[in-house]
Design goal:
By secondary structure, the protein is α+β, with helices and mostly antiparallel strands. The protein has 3 helices and 8 strands, in the order H-H-E-E-E-E-H-E-E-E-E. The chain is 26% helix and 34% strand.
Length: 170
Protein backbone atom coordinates (compact mmCIF):
# COMPACT_ATOMS: atom_id res chain seq x y z
CA UNK A 1 0.00 0.00 0.00
CA UNK A 2 2.82 2.38 0.86
CA UNK A 3 4.37 1.84 -2.62
CA UNK A 4 1.04 2.53 -4.37
CA UNK A 5 0.59 5.78 -2.38
CA UNK A 6 4.09 6.87 -3.40
CA UNK A 7 3.38 5.99 -7.05
CA UNK A 8 0.11 7.95 -6.98
CA UNK A 9 1.88 10.91 -5.37
CA UNK A 10 4.70 10.80 -7.95
CA UNK A 11 2.20 10.49 -10.82
CA UNK A 12 0.15 13.41 -9.44
CA UNK A 13 3.22 15.64 -9.09
CA UNK A 14 4.37 14.74 -12.61
CA UNK A 15 0.95 15.49 -14.08
CA UNK A 16 0.79 18.80 -12.21
CA UNK A 17 4.24 19.78 -13.48
CA UNK A 18 3.23 18.90 -17.05
CA UNK A 19 0.06 20.97 -16.74
CA UNK A 20 2.13 23.98 -15.64
CA UNK A 21 4.71 23.60 -18.43
CA UNK A 22 4.42 26.52 -20.85
CA UNK A 23 2.90 25.56 -24.19
CA UNK A 24 6.04 26.68 -26.06
CA UNK A 25 8.15 24.18 -24.10
CA UNK A 26 5.92 21.36 -25.33
CA UNK A 27 6.33 22.32 -29.00
CA UNK A 28 8.97 21.07 -31.37
CA UNK A 29 11.61 23.47 -30.06
CA UNK A 30 13.56 22.25 -27.06
CA UNK A 31 14.34 24.42 -24.02
CA UNK A 32 17.74 25.50 -25.42
CA UNK A 33 16.43 26.26 -28.92
CA UNK A 34 16.81 30.06 -28.60
CA UNK A 35 20.38 29.86 -27.32
CA UNK A 36 21.29 27.50 -30.17
CA UNK A 37 19.50 29.61 -32.81
CA UNK A 38 21.30 32.77 -31.68
CA UNK A 39 24.67 31.00 -32.08
CA UNK A 40 23.72 29.72 -35.54
CA UNK A 41 22.40 33.07 -36.79
CA UNK A 42 25.48 34.86 -35.40
CA UNK A 43 27.61 32.51 -37.53
CA UNK A 44 25.92 33.51 -40.81
CA UNK A 45 28.53 36.27 -41.30
CA UNK A 46 31.20 33.53 -41.33
CA UNK A 47 29.03 31.34 -43.61
CA UNK A 48 28.72 28.75 -40.79
CA UNK A 49 32.45 27.95 -40.87
CA UNK A 50 32.66 27.64 -37.07
CA UNK A 51 29.82 25.10 -36.92
CA UNK A 52 30.66 23.15 -40.12
CA UNK A 53 32.03 19.69 -39.40
CA UNK A 54 33.23 16.85 -41.59
CA UNK A 55 31.73 16.14 -45.00
CA UNK A 56 29.04 13.45 -44.85
CA UNK A 57 27.75 13.34 -48.44
CA UNK A 58 28.02 14.84 -51.90
CA UNK A 59 25.56 14.40 -54.73
CA UNK A 60 26.89 14.01 -58.25
CA UNK A 61 26.49 17.10 -60.45
CA UNK A 62 23.28 17.05 -62.42
CA UNK A 63 23.02 17.84 -66.15
CA UNK A 64 22.96 21.57 -65.35
CA UNK A 65 26.16 21.34 -63.28
CA UNK A 66 24.52 21.66 -59.83
CA UNK A 67 25.29 19.50 -56.79
CA UNK A 68 24.86 19.54 -53.00
CA UNK A 69 27.54 18.81 -50.40
CA UNK A 70 26.42 18.12 -46.82
CA UNK A 71 28.57 18.53 -43.72
CA UNK A 72 27.90 17.47 -40.17
CA UNK A 73 26.76 20.46 -38.09
CA UNK A 74 28.75 20.90 -34.89
CA UNK A 75 25.76 22.75 -33.36
CA UNK A 76 22.28 21.19 -33.43
CA UNK A 77 19.15 23.20 -32.68
CA UNK A 78 17.48 21.78 -29.58
CA UNK A 79 14.53 19.66 -30.66
CA UNK A 80 15.81 18.90 -34.18
CA UNK A 81 16.40 15.31 -35.20
CA UNK A 82 19.41 16.16 -37.40
CA UNK A 83 21.22 19.33 -38.55
CA UNK A 84 23.72 19.85 -41.38
CA UNK A 85 25.61 22.63 -43.13
CA UNK A 86 24.98 22.43 -46.89
CA UNK A 87 26.75 23.83 -49.93
CA UNK A 88 24.66 24.17 -53.05
CA UNK A 89 27.27 24.04 -55.80
CA UNK A 90 26.54 26.00 -58.97
CA UNK A 91 28.31 25.71 -62.32
CA UNK A 92 29.72 29.21 -61.80
CA UNK A 93 30.35 31.35 -58.74
CA UNK A 94 30.70 30.55 -55.08
CA UNK A 95 28.53 27.88 -53.48
CA UNK A 96 25.39 28.96 -51.68
CA UNK A 97 25.70 27.81 -48.06
CA UNK A 98 22.90 27.15 -45.60
CA UNK A 99 22.35 25.55 -42.22
CA UNK A 100 19.54 22.98 -42.32
CA UNK A 101 17.68 20.94 -39.69
CA UNK A 102 14.91 18.36 -39.80
CA UNK A 103 12.10 18.10 -37.27
CA UNK A 104 9.76 15.25 -36.50
CA UNK A 105 6.37 16.99 -36.33
CA UNK A 106 4.74 17.50 -32.95
CA UNK A 107 1.06 17.06 -33.82
CA UNK A 108 0.45 18.28 -37.36
CA UNK A 109 3.22 19.50 -39.63
CA UNK A 110 1.45 22.86 -39.94
CA UNK A 111 1.32 23.27 -36.15
CA UNK A 112 5.03 22.40 -35.94
CA UNK A 113 5.91 24.98 -38.62
CA UNK A 114 3.87 27.65 -36.84
CA UNK A 115 5.37 26.84 -33.44
CA UNK A 116 8.93 26.91 -34.80
CA UNK A 117 8.24 30.19 -36.64
CA UNK A 118 6.77 31.89 -33.56
CA UNK A 119 9.60 30.65 -31.35
CA UNK A 120 12.24 31.69 -33.92
CA UNK A 121 10.76 35.17 -34.24
CA UNK A 122 10.77 35.56 -30.46
CA UNK A 123 14.37 34.30 -30.26
CA UNK A 124 15.81 36.64 -32.89
CA UNK A 125 13.82 39.60 -31.55
CA UNK A 126 11.86 40.54 -34.65
CA UNK A 127 9.01 42.92 -33.83
CA UNK A 128 8.36 44.09 -37.40
CA UNK A 129 5.42 42.18 -38.92
CA UNK A 130 7.10 42.47 -42.33
CA UNK A 131 10.04 40.46 -40.96
CA UNK A 132 8.00 37.27 -40.89
CA UNK A 133 5.38 35.57 -43.02
CA UNK A 134 3.54 32.30 -42.60
CA UNK A 135 1.30 30.62 -45.14
CA UNK A 136 -0.67 27.39 -44.89
CA UNK A 137 -0.86 25.85 -48.36
CA UNK A 138 -2.97 22.82 -47.61
CA UNK A 139 -4.30 20.55 -44.94
CA UNK A 140 -0.84 19.74 -43.59
CA UNK A 141 1.47 21.97 -45.60
CA UNK A 142 2.88 25.31 -44.45
CA UNK A 143 5.82 27.62 -45.00
CA UNK A 144 7.15 30.32 -42.69
CA UNK A 145 9.82 32.96 -43.19
CA UNK A 146 11.59 34.92 -40.46
CA UNK A 147 14.10 37.60 -41.42
CA UNK A 148 16.92 39.05 -39.38
CA UNK A 149 19.29 41.83 -40.32
CA UNK A 150 21.77 39.56 -42.11
CA UNK A 151 20.02 36.19 -42.28
CA UNK A 152 16.80 34.53 -43.32
CA UNK A 153 15.02 31.52 -41.83
CA UNK A 154 12.70 29.34 -43.91
CA UNK A 155 10.59 26.66 -42.23
CA UNK A 156 8.56 24.34 -44.41
CA UNK A 157 6.35 21.30 -44.35
CA UNK A 158 5.23 19.77 -47.60
CA UNK A 159 4.99 16.21 -48.82
CA UNK A 160 8.02 15.01 -46.82
CA UNK A 161 7.20 13.47 -43.43
CA UNK A 162 9.51 15.87 -41.60
CA UNK A 163 9.51 19.66 -41.17
CA UNK A 164 12.55 21.35 -42.69
CA UNK A 165 14.27 24.41 -41.17
CA UNK A 166 16.92 26.45 -43.05
CA UNK A 167 19.05 29.41 -42.01
CA UNK A 168 20.92 31.26 -44.74
CA UNK A 169 22.99 34.41 -44.94
CA UNK A 170 21.22 37.34 -46.64
Amino acid sequence: MRISVLLLLAFGLGAAALAQTPAKARTAAGPHFCDDLKIVTADTARKFETIKGAKISESPRDSGGYATVKYRALRKLDGASVCTVQDYLRPEGNPLRSYACEWTPVGSKTATVLALAQTSETCVGSNDPLDSMTAAQGRDEATAYVYGEDFGITIGAGTAPQVLFWVRPE
